[in-house]
Amino acid sequence: DADVTQTPRNRITKTGKRIMLECSQTKGHDRMYWYRQDPGLGLRLIYYSFDVKDINKGEISDGYSVSRQAQAKFSLSLESAIPNQTALYFCATGGQVTGELFFGEGSRLTVL
Amino acid sequence: GENVEQHPSTLSVQEGDSAVIKCTYSDSASNYFPWYKQELGKRPQLIIDIRSNVGEKKDQRIAVTLNKTAKHFSLHITETQPEDSAVYFCAASHSGNTGKLIFGQGTTLQVKP
User: Fold this and answer.
1) Residue A1 has what pLDDT?
2) Which residues on neighbouring strands pair with residue A65, listed in sequence order?
3) Residue of A nearest to B88 (CA)
4) What percentage of chain A exceeds 90 in pLDDT?
5) Is B84 helix (H, G, I), strand (E, B) or coil?
6) Of A55, A38, A74, A12, nearest to B106 (Cα)?
7) Does A90 touch chain B (CB under 8 A)?
8) Which residues of B touch A48 (CB under 8 A)?
9) H or E element: which one contains A45?
10) Per-residue pLDDT, B1
11) What average pLDDT is seen over chain A?
C-alpha cells in the first residue's frame, strides 16, 4: 500500500555529497521513525519523532539529521555522505494505541 | 538503552517441520515484543506481538512465548511452508512511554520444499 511513501527509492551518490531522504504518510500517525538496514545487523534506529516538536536520537544518529516538517512528513539528511552509509533506509510510522509500525518501501542508498 | 539479541542468524528447515527463533532483551522495563517478517525485496510487516502481561500468544501456525524473568522471547512456526521463507525480526520497546522499537539482528529462514 502507499500509506507510507519514501523518495527516492534508489540513489547513488558520491562521498561528501549532501543527501535527503523523504518520507510522507497518510495514516494520520503522530510517531515517525527512520531505520537503517544492513545485512547481519538488522534494523537500527537512527532518529524518531513523536510529534512535530519532538525529535529524538536513536541508536546510530551520528552523521545524520532529521526534520519533521509536518505531522505527515519526516526527512532524513546525510550532510556529507560516506561509503559506510551505504544501506537500505526505512521510514516507519506508528500510532499511540498499539506499538505496530508501518514501514515504507525503503530507500536504497549507495555512496561511492 | 535497550539491546536485543536474536539467534540463529540463519535457519533452514524442511517443509512441514517446526522453526524456532529466539531473542533476549536487556531492559527489564520493556513491555512490548513484536515480530516482523520481511520477504525478499519487501518492507517488514508485523506478524504477531505479545505484551508483558501474557506468557504466550498464538495465531494459527505461529506463536510467541515470553519469559520475563529470563528476559527472552521466542517465535515458533509450526508446519512450515515455502512461503514462510523470509527474514524475521524480533523487537522490544516500552510501548507506553517511548514507543521506541529496538530490533534484533534478524533471522533468515529457508523452508525447503
Assistant:
1) 53
2) A77
3) A42
4) 88
5) helix
6) A38
7) yes
8) 99-100
9) strand A42-51
10) 81
11) 94
- The confidence band for B96, taking pLDDT boundaries of 50, 70 and 90, is low
Cα separation, B79 vs A43, whole angstroms: 28
Choosing among A32, A101, A102, A107, which should be mutated to test the B contact, i.e. which has the most B CBs within 10 A? Answer: A101
Residue B57 to residues A86, B6, B74, B80, B85, Cα–Cα distance (Å):
37, 19, 11, 18, 21
Chains A, B: CB contacts within 8 A come to: 57
Q: DSSP for A47-88?
A: EEEEETTEEEE-SS-TT-EEEEEETTEEEEEESS--GGG-EE
> Is the CB of residue B48 less than 8 Å away from at least one CB of chain A?
no
Best of B5, B100, B102, B107 to disrupt the A interface (most A CBs within 10 Å) is: B100
Residue with cell string 532524513: A76
Asked if A100 reaches chain B (Cβ–Cβ under 8 Å), the answer is: yes
